[in-house]
């Protein structure tokens, strides 16, 4: 097997509570169970360090995986989701339409936030700061899709629509995909 360098994980399924902002959501019980199952599949890749977005759903995901892999988790603020502070979750359809706009206009800043290109650059810079490899990094769907699509030459919106909660992408030192779990 080719040696892993980066294990990029999308958080597990959160509890969706429309009364609180999505950056404050934590994992639901089914999400915790799915993350625990994912952790077992990540053991063979031998992560030596773990970092996470500060958002509860990501940090809880990282802590579950880190505990199974025997790793302490460091909070890395650059792994947070695409900044779009002044936008509520709304309905599922409204959310999907807003995300489609982000991917369709990667240079345009979201209301109260950053552009998709800026989010991708932020994530790349955050990952580059951490030199211990293999590195386990837990982040969010939009920013993960932007980064992975750029690495692999994929359509970011298509990738986002096909993500799971949780989801994991294992890359080698050259940025080549070893496995999607």
Topology record:
Layout: E1 6-10, H1 29-42, E2 49-52, H2 56-69, E3 73-75, H3 92-104, H4 116-128, E4 135-139, H5 141-152, H6 156-161, E5 167-171, E6 177-180
Parallel strand pairs: 1-4, 2-3, 2-4
Antiparallel strand pairs: 1-5, 5-6
Helix pairs in contact: 1-2, 4-5
Spell out the key features of this protein.
6-stranded mixed sheet, 14% strand, single chain, 181 residues, alpha/beta
- Radius of gyration equals 15 Å
Strand content: 5-15%
Determine the mean pLDDT: 92
Structural class by secondary-structure content: alpha/beta
Largest sheet: 6 strands, mixed
What is the N-to-C succession of helices and strands?
Answer: EHEHEHHEHHEE
Q: Helicity range of the residues?
A: 25-40%
Low-confidence stretches: none
Shape: globular
The counted number of beta strands is 6
The first-to-last residue Cα distance is 15 Å
Strand order of the largest sheet: 3-2-4-1-5-6
Count every helix, treating DSSP H or I runs of 4 or more residues as helices.
6
What can you tell me about this protein's structure?
- There is one protein chain.
- The chain is of the alpha/beta class and 181 residues long.
- The chain is 40% helix and 14% strand.
- α2 links the parallel β2 (49-52) and β3 (73-75).
- It contains six helices and six strands.
């Amino acid at each position: 097997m080719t040696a892993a360098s980066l294990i990029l994980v999308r958080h597990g399924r959160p509890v969706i509570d429309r009364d609180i902002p999505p950056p404050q959501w934590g994992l639901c019980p089914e999400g915790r169970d799915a993350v625990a199952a994912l952790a077992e599949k990540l053991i063979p890749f031998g992560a030596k360090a773990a970092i996470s977005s500060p958002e509860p759903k990501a940090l809880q995901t990282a802590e579950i995986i880190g505990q199974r892999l025997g790793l302490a988790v460091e909070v890395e603020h650059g792994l947070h989701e695409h900044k779009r502070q002044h936008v509520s979750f709304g309905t599922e359809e409204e959310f999907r339409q807003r995300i489609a706009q982000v991917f369709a206009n990667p240079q345009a800043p979201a209301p109260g936030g950053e552009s998709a290109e800026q989010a991708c650059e932020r994530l790349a810079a955050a990952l580059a700061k951490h030199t211990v490899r293999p590195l386990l990094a837990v982040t969010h769907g939009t920013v993960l899709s932007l980064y992975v699509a750029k690495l692999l030459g994929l359509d970011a919106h298509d990738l986002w629509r096909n993500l799971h909660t949780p989801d994991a992408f294992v890359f080698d030192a050259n940025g080549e995909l070893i496995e999607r779990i």
